[in-house]
Structures are given as structure tokens and as C-alpha cells.
Design brief:
188 residues; mainly alpha; two-stranded parallel sheet; 41% helix; 7% strand
């Protein structure tokens, strides 16, 4: 006689939540206008499919911005108005170095970023299949390649360029080569 829509997956779990829960809408800026409009009541009132989320559920959305080259068309103004706040996050060398320390990045790479903080993030989006600059994810990729011994290969510089762009990759590889030739600080 009757039918009703019941959310599935993560939304269904959120409807049953009894403790603090975070519902993360990742890459919201890449959603179609129809999808964004369908989420308006979810964001403003915590409602989905005629059901209300428990008060212990908080909603957070993440997205690149229009100028990041991530095929983001922007978010409609009514959606922005439903967020308590919109916060722009930019990478900082202290945070990246702390992350690198806890994830086994090589000392030379951490030293390079510490001594050249402008190198941390200077991406200029391109449509071509090459890196035009560095991002924290690119530096993480370089750390992984270094751990695998790939940067020591004859094609190591090209791999570095593929991680953070030709300019930053060349700088970092030069730093990497020089740092191993420096005298030990205790000997000095």
C-alpha cells in the first residue's frame, strides 16, 4: 500500500547514530547542481528522505576551489548560506614538516621545505599531463619515491619533476645531492 525512501549506506548509518558522528561530504564543489540542490535540506535542517539526523551528527563539506584546476564549477549561493562557516585552508610548512616527520619523510626533503617554504605549494593548474608546480601531495609522492630508492636511479630527476614540477624538482634534487656532501655539524 505505501512506499518510502530510506537512505542507504552512510546516510542510513548516520540516521542511527547515538554518539558524535561526522558526515563528510567530500569534493562537494564537483557535484552537479541537481545534487547540490538535493542536499540543501540535509545541510540546513539535517533532513534526508523525510527523516531527521540525530543531533549528534555534524556535517562537514570539503572542496577544491574554482581556480584549482579540479573541474570545480563552484557552489550555488543558497548552499553556501546553509553552512555555519566557510574556511579556506592553505598548506603551511610547519604542518607539512610535522606530517612528514610522522610519515617517515627523508630529512633532506624536510630540510628543503624548511629552508624554502615557498616551494611547498606553488601549483599553477595546467590541462597538459605534467606538473606545473608543487603541492604537499607532490612532496609526499617524492618522499615515497625516495624511500623506494627511485630517486637514485638515472631517471630520478624526471620522477622528481613528475612529483612537483620541473623547477621545484630540479631544486630539490640539487639540494638532495648537496646535503649529503655537507660536513657533519658535530665535526664543524
Amino acid at each position: 500500500g505505501t512506499a518510502g525512501h530510506l537512505p542507504f549506506g552512510v546516510l542510513g548509518e548516520c540516521l542511527k547514530a547515538e554518539k558524535d558522528t561526522l558526515l563528510l561530504l567530500d569534493e562537494l564543489g564537483g557535484a552537479s547542481g541537481e545534487t547540490v540542490k538535493a542536499a540543501l535540506r540535509l545541510l540546513q535542517f539535517g533532513e534526508v528522505g523525510g527523516k531527521r539526523l540525530p543531533h549528534c551528527v555534524r556535517i562537514l563539506a570539503l572542496s577544491n576551489d574554482v581556480g584549482h584546476g579540479a573541474d570545480i564549477m563552484g557552489i550555488i549561493e543558497p548552499m553556501k548560506d546553509r553552512f555555519d562557516a566557510i574556511v579556506n585552508v592553505t598548506p603551511h610548512e610547519d604542518d607539512t614538516i610535522q606530517y612528514g616527520l610522522t610519515h617517515g619523510w627523508p630529512g633532506w626533503l624536510l630540510g628543503f621545505i624548511r629552508n624554502n617554504p615557498a616551494a611547498l605549494h606553488d601549483l599553477k593548474p595546467l590541462k597538459s599531463m605534467q606538473r606545473s608546480g608543487a603541492t604537499p601531495r607532490g612532496w609526499a609522492g617524492m618522499a615515497r619515491l625516495d624511500a623506494l630508492g627511485m630517486l637514485d636511479k638515472s631517471y630520478g630527476p624526471e620522477l622528481a619533476w613528475g612529483c612537483v614540477g620541473k623547477g621545484r624538482g630540479t631544486e630539490a634534487m640539487a639540494y638532495r645531492g648537496l646535503v649529503n656532501e655537507l660536513p657533519d655539524i658535530n665535526q664543524v
